[in-house]
Specification:
Bound molecules: arginine
Distance between the termini: 47 Å
Number of strands: 6
Radius of gyration: 30 Å
Largest sheet: 2 strands, antiparallel
Strand content: under 5%
CATH class of the largest domain: Mainly Alpha
CATH topology of the largest domain: Fumarase C, Chain A, domain 2
Shape: elongated
Number of helices: 18
CATH superfamily of the largest domain: Fumarase/aspartase (Central domain)
Helix content: 55-70%
Order of helices and strands: HHHHHHEEHEHEHHEHHEHHHHHH
Strand order of the largest sheet: 1-2
C-alpha cells in the first residue's frame, strides 16, 4: 500500500521485523468503528456517494463478523491491522474500498484505535476493581467484630478490627478506579483529521466524527495528536499503581495465611500443594499477583523509555506502545478477577486473631493516654509507660500483671482504674474520630461502602 515509489520488495527480514499485525489485530473492531465514522464524514463532505458509503459500511460489517468468528485471514505481509482490514475491504467491494483512506493516515488512525480500545479497557478494569472491592467488603463483613493486631514495621502495634484492615484496601482501590476514570477522560479525545502530522487539505467534520464515536473532544494540534501517547502512559501508570496496591494486599494475605499468623483460611480451590511436601497449602494466587506487579511496572517503564527523546511527530518506535498496554490490561484484569474470587471464599480464624491481639503490650499506648488525661504531658507519659514495659519484660510477666506499687512508683497519677483500661475492646471503642477504628465507625464505613458500591455498579 506504500510501494509506489519503491522498485524492490521489502526484505523478508524487514517484513518479519516490522509487522505488528500479530499483536495489533486486537484493535480490529475499534479500527473498524473508527473507519465507519470516518467514511460517514467523507460522505458528508461529498467525497463518497450514499451508495459508496453503504458499500463501505456493509463491507466493514462483514469483516467485523469474520474477525469475530475467527474466519478472517490475517496476512503478515500486510504489516498491520489497518492495512489488513483496508485490503480486505477493497477485495470485497472493489475500488470504493480504496477511497476509505482519503484524508487519513495510519498515524492518526492508530492513535484513534488505541484511544477507542483504552476506553473499553478503562471501563472493564473499573468494573473489575468494583468486583474486588465487593469481595473485600464481603470479607470485612465476615470479620464481624473480630480484632487483630495492627502492625507497623511488621511488629505488633495496636489492635484494629479485621474489617478496618480490609477496608483500607477498599479505599485504595477506590482511588485506583479514580485514576482509570481520569485516564479515560484524557484518552477520549479524537485525533482523526490530524493526518500524518499536518492535517489534510480535505477538511472533514471532526466534531461530527467525535460525536459518532462518543468522544467528548477533538485534538487541537495535529502534530501533538499523532505524537501523543500520554494517555497510554497514564493507563499504564494507573495499572502500575493498582498493581502496587494488589501486591501489598497479597503480601498481607500471604502473611495471614501462614501458620505463624494463621488469621486467614484460603479455600482449597484457591491454593496449591507441593509435589514434595504433602502438608503444604500454598497461597500461589497471592504470590503470582504480587509477582505480576513487576510486569505492570516494567510495562510503564517500557513505554516511557520508548517515548523519551522521540522528535515530533510520529516515529515507528511508537508501534512499541501496544504490547505493554495490552499486557498490562490483561495482567491486571486477570489479577483483579482471581483475587476477587479468592477473597469471596476466604474465611477468618477469629480465635487466632483474638489470641494475637490480646497482648496488653498492644494497648500500652492507652496507658500513656490515661496519664495524659490526668494531666501529664504526652512525652513524659510515654517515658513512664516505657519504663513499665521494660519492667514487665524483665520480670517476664504481662503488663496487666504488674503490681499497683510498681505503677505508683512509675507515676503517682496511676489509680485503681489503670489496669482495666488495658483492654483492646475498650481501647477501640474510644477511637471514635472520623477514619478511626471504633467498631461503630467501622460499621458505619462498611455500610457506606456497600451503598456506594451498589450505586457505582448500578
Ligand atoms: N503499525 C503502526 C503503529 O502501530 C501504524 C502506523 C504506521 N505509520 C507509518 N507511517 N508507518 O504505529
Amino acid at each position: 500500500m506504500w510501494h509506489g515509489r519503491f522498485s524492490k520488495n521489502p526484505s523478508e527480514r524487514l517484513r518479519a521485523y516490522s509487522e505488528s499485525v500479530s499483536f495489533d489485530r486486537r484493535l480490529a473492531l475499534h479500527d473498524i468503528a473508527g473507519s465507519k465514522a470516518h467514511a460517514a464524514a467523507l460522505q458528508r463532505a461529498g467525497l463518497l456517494s450514499e451508495e459508496e458509503l453503504s458499500a463501505i459500511l456493509s463491507g466493514l460489517g462483514e469483516i467485523a463478523g469474520e474477525i469475530n468468528e475467527g474466519r478472517f485471514a490475517w496476512r503478515e505481509d500486510l504489516e498491520d491491522v489497518h492495512m489488513n482490514i483496508e485490503a480486505a475491504l477493497t477485495a470485497k467491494i472493489g475500488a470504493t474500498g480504496a477511497k476509505l483512506h482519503t484524508a487519513r493516515s495510519r498515524n492518526d488512525q492508530v492513535a484513534l484505535d488505541l484511544r477507542l480500545w483504552l476506553r473499553d479497557e478503562n471501563a472493564s478494569l473499573i468494573a473489575a476493581l468494583r468486583r474486588l472491592q465487593g469481595a473485600l467488603l464481603g470479607l470485612a463483613g465476615r470479620g464481624g467484630s473480630a480484632i487483630m493486631p495492627g502492625y507497623t514495621h511488621l511488629q505488633r502495634a495496636q489492635p484494629v478490627p479485621a474489617a478496618h484492615h480490609v477496608l483500607a484496601y477498599v479505599e485504595m482501590l477506590e482511588r485506583d478506579a479514580g485514576r482509570f476514570e481520569d485516564a479515560a477522560r484524557r484518552a477520549e479525545v479524537l485525533p482523526l483529521g490530524s493526518g500524518a502530522l499536518a492535517g489534510s487539505t480535505i477538511a472533514l467534520d471532526r466534531a461530527g466524527i467525535a460525536r459518532e464515536l462518543g468522544f467528548a473532544a477533538v485534538s487541537q494540534n495535529s502534530m501533538d495528536a499523532v505524537a501523543d501517547r500520554d494517555f497510554a502512559c497514564e493507563f499504564l501508570s494507573a495499572c502500575a499503581i493498582t498493581g502496587m496496591h494488589l501486591s501489598r494486599l497479597c503480601e498481607d494475605t500471604v502473611l495471614w495465611a501462614s501458620t505463624e499468623f494463621g488469621f486467614l483460611k484460603l479455600g482449597d480451590e484457591h491454593t496449591t500443594g507441593s509435589s514434595l511436601m504433602p502438608q503444604k497449602k500454598n497461597p500461589d494466587i497471592a504470590e503470582l499477583a504480587r509477582g505480576r506487579t513487576g510486569r505492570l511496572y516494567g510495562n510503564l517503564m517500557s513505554l516511557l523509555t520508548t517515548l523519551k527523546g522521540l522528535p515530533l511527530a510520529y516515529n515507528r518506535d511508537m508501534q512499541e506502545d501496544k504490547e505493554p498496554v495490552f499486557d498490562s490490561a490483561d495482567t491486571l484484569g486477570a489479577s483483579l478477577h482471581i483475587l476477587a474470587e479468592m477473597f469471596d471464599a476466604a474465611e477468618w480464624n477469629t480465635v487466632r486473631m483474638a489470641a494475637a491481639a490480646d497482648d496488653a503490650l498492644l494497648v500500652a499506648t492507652d496507658w500513656a493516654d490515661y496519664l495524659v488525661r490526668k494531666g501529664l504531658p504526652f512525652r513524659e507519659a510515654h517515658e513512664v509507660v516505657g519504663r513499665l514495659v521494660a519492667l514487665s519484660v524483665e520480670r517476664g510477666v504481662g503488663l496487666r500483671d504488674l503490681e499497683m506499687d510498681d505503677l505508683q512508683e512509675a507515676s503517682k497519677l496511676f489509680g485503681p482504674d489503670a489496669t482495666g483500661c488495658l483492654d483492646a475492646k475498650l481501647s477501640l471503642a474510644s477511637r471514635t474520630a472520623e477514619g478511626a477504628p471504633s467498631p461503630d465507625r467501622v460499621a458505619e464505613r462498611l455500610a457506606w461502602w456497600k451503598e456506594r458500591l451498589a450505586s457505582a455498579v448500578r
